[in-house]
Amino acid sequence: MKRRLLLLLTVTAMVGGCFTACGNSATVNEPEQKTEVQEESQKSEAKDEVGNPYLGTWAITSVEIDGAKLSVKEAESMGYDYYDDYFIIFKEEGKAVVLQNGYSDIVDWSENNGWLKIDNDAAEYQDGVISLEYYGDKVFMERISDSQDLSEVMEMTGENEREITLEATNDYVEVSNFDLSQLALSDGELSGDLSYTIHITQNYIDTYSDYENIEIYLSFYDENGNILGDSYVYSYPEYEREYTAEDSDSVLLWCDKEAAEVRIDKIVISK
What's the rounded mean pLDDT across residues 185-197? Predict the structure, then answer.
């Protein structure tokens, strides 16, 4: 009898413990629903953990022209040659550097739910790509570097080589046969057209074909070898091949003697 009572008490205790445990489980509160503010805060914290997706240097990788999406190379082959020299460097504290055609400008930028405001222009960020309007076309930019240093970016992109200085004697541009006969001296001013022969070598075509401007810096001397002053003339490559041509440009310098000789100081080529 005592054994049966002990067994009954044991079973009763086990059943009661089960009901208690089940009751506790049933009364656990459901997880609290996150508010929109909390979700945005968590997204912001997650963004900070993996790094700001905007900071760094961005370049155009493709463009949409007349509804067709083209790579920058394809666009260049069609005559759209102004997409490969546009960069945006997103810096901290809401500042950005826009680098275009070798010139830079500091502007403000901000972000709101994937939409960017860069100076006064709107752009959209999605899946690692920024899209915006540029020269009336839609362009797509991708981050090419984490660097926010302008000098590093200019060196990396070659933008600091938009102007190259060559020696007077070089393997790329040869200038000779200066004709001073059209220069006239009047009231302390020597002016007129200076004619010369220019030879664009194959080395220039192979190395600097995208450099479209040639500035020839000159010094003028009298018959005794005394320097009278300096000036420069412009020339523009006409063909995508080696050639020799006659060219001329106007010069002006202040002096009181006729020029008997002209010498090349340097030649600067630029994009």
Answer: 95
